[in-house]
Amino acid sequence: MVQPTPNHFAGLEHLATAIILLDDACRVVYMNPGAEVIFAFSAKQITGMLISEVFPNCEILMLAVQNAIAQQSPFREHEFAISTHRQQSFAVTCTVTPIDSPNASLILEFQPMDAQLRIAREERMLIQQQANAELLRNLAHEIRNPLGGLRGAAQLLEHELPSPSLREYTQVIIKEADRLQSLMDRLLIPHRVPKYQPTNIHEVLERVRSLLLAESPKGILIKRDYDLSLPELIGDREKLIQAVLNIARNAVQAMQSHQTVNSQITFRTRAERQVTLVRKRYRVAIKLEIIDNGPGIPADIRDRIFYPLVSGSEGGSGLGLTLAQTFITQHHGMIECESEPGRTCFTILLPIETTAVKPAISTLLEKTT
Question: Can you give the CATH number for the domain in which 95 is found?
């Protein structure tokens, strides 16, 4: 058989699923980056190995391979357990397809069930976010007009009152109307057109850090764990700042209200490779984690924290995380949360779609240390 080169399989490099190609002796001749990420070993390590050696004691997979060869047609096995030669286990769906190629005889396509569940969860979140946005936009428009009339009537009434002491009540109406007007303005902010430009994620985090320290100068430690090699992304700097600030500010308020000892927030950035976000594959994404050691999110609202008007704090508007999710979605990213008492972690994934020049930020960090 002709020894394959990377160019032979260039079209498989960017597929979201894991691909392994076998020769007519069922030896591995190629594995794409998606498979390397999922199975946690490199193509170089398993090239030339029998597929039965890569995935030992997996009768279901071997049966699928045999059936595909015997029938010369695709054969699919749904949702079965598979273990690698390194004793790592996965739940996958696999399709085995015979191919007519001088370099390979079979193509194995693996879809990890956890990845499928994540895609389904992302799609549900996207649908919910779109429904939330439509609801909030309609609600804001419906409330703004009568609210203006209510405030105007209160002002006219104030001028007609015989006693100045009674104006205390009209002032309550006017101030509450202004507060609701401000709330309506916030509901409409996400629908303004983003201003995309090259943006350094660490400049965003440093801005949020300075704002938090100005608001809570004592009793809060904000740690930085940055990967300074990350490139710029194309984004709306102000919306990214607001998204991160909403999350971090919630954490600070929760820790302060519960009087958390040694309150701490960590901003951590890393590169995430071969990421699938809402069925689109990206070679590189920025992974941003916002971690706090507070009381955790109450269990009864943990699954609804991104819904509008859901708040875990007394007096909260319940819009901060909804807006954060909206802003991240506008950047084709995703936001998730894991929480338990003593540790809450919000994870934001932001794809890098273009090659950007990496600016130096050492000076920025020195200035804010």
Answer: 3.30.450.20
CB 110 within 8 A of CB 93: yes
State how beta strands 264-277 and 221-225 pair: parallel
Nearest one of 271, 320, 285, 288 to 203, comparing CA atoms: 288
Of 115, 141, 169, the position where a domain reaches its end is 115
346 and 198, same domain (yes or no):
yes
40 within 8 A of 86, measured Cβ to Cβ: yes
Partners of 90 in the beta sheet?
Answer: 82
Which has the closest alpha carbon to 128: 290, 344, 321?
321
pLDDT (tens digit, 9 = 90+) per residue, 116-145? 556 666 666 666 666 666 666 676 667 777
| Residue in the block written with tokens 């790592």 | 88
Give CA–CA dist 247/252, Å, rounded.
Answer: 9
Prediction pTM value: 0.56
Backbone φ and ψ of 13, nearest 5°: -60, -35
Kindly give the residue spans of alpha helices, DSSP state H, lying in the chain. Answer: 33-39, 43-46, 51-54, 59-71, 113-160, 167-188, 201-215, 237-257, 320-330, 362-368
The two most distant CA atoms of the chain are separated, in Å, by: 101
Does the residue 66 lie in any domain? Answer: yes
Among the listed residues 62, 64, 81, the one whose alpha carbon sits nearest the alpha carbon of residue 73: 64
